[in-house]
Amino acid sequence: MTQPTDIRRVHTALALAGHGIPVLPLRVGKVPFGNCRACAKNACGGRPNMKTPGPCHCPDVCHAWAAATTEPHVLNSPQWTTAWRQAAAVAYHPGGAGLTVVDLDNAAAIAWARETLPATRTVPTTRGEHWIYRGVMPSANAVRPGVDIKSHMAYARWLGWGSGAMAALPGSVRALALTDPSPARRAPQTVSAPLGGQGGECRHRTPVFLDRGIAMAEQQITGAREAVHATVYRTFLAVLSTHGRCGCLTDTHVARLFTAAQAKGESVRHCTDAWTNARTALGM
After folding, report:
1. Distance CA 97, CA 76 (A)
2. Residues 154-178: pLDDT tens digits?
3. Which of 139, 183, 222, 225 pairs as cysteine with 154 (C-beta 3.0–4.6 A)?
4. Neighbours of 252 (CB within 10 A)
C-alpha cells in the first residue's frame, strides 16, 4: 500500500536526521513556513543558532533555516506533523551538516563548474545541478550568472543523495562569496607587475584548461550588468585560486582580464587594486 506523501516526507526527514543532517519542511514555491504570531518580526528574540538575542522555545516550524533540526521528537511533534501535511518538499541546512551546496541553475552554469571546480558529489535539480562539498562557508546568492552558494544560514531542497565522491570545499568556491574590500582596507600599491607566480605544482590537465579558464573569466566580466566592481574582484579571486600558485599564469593572461575589466569601465588602478587584494585574500 502506498504511503501518503506527508508520511513519506517524514520518513525522509527522519532518515536524514539520523545521518546528522538538520531538516525542515518547505511550502509550495520552495519557501519555508513563516513565523507564528508569537514569533512575528522576531518578537521572541529568535532561535539561538540565528545569533539573535534571547532563546526562542516555540515548538512551531518557525525561523526558516534555523528551524532545521535532527531531533526525532521535534520532527514528530504535533506542530511539525501539521506542517508536514501542508509541506511540498523536504529541505535541509547544509551548513548544519558541515556541507556547502553550489547551486547551478542552468546549462551554462554547469558547463562553467565542470571547467572550473573540482569534481564532487552531484545531485540533479529541476533546472540544473547541486554540487556538494565537505566544509562550511558563508552563503551567497548570484555569485555569478546562475550560481548560488548555500551553506551557513541557508537551506537547500533535498533531492536525493546524488552520485560521485564528495570533495573538500575548495578555495575557488570560497573565493566566489568574497567581495572587494573597501578603499580604506585596500592593500598599498607596492607592486609594479600584477602577477608573480609561486612555482607550485601545476594541477592543470592541459594548457587548454588554463586558456578556457581565462576565456570564461573574460566572459564573466564582460557579461556583468551590475556590481561590476564586485564581479571583477570575484573573478580575479577565482582565477588566482585555480591558476595562480603554479606559475602557469602569465602577464599576458592577466592583461586579458584587465582589458575585459577596463572595457566595462574599470580603471587600471581599480584592476590593480582588485588583483592585489585578491592575492592578499588568498595569501599569495
Report:
1. 20
2. 999 999 999 999 999 988 888 887 6
3. 139
4. 9
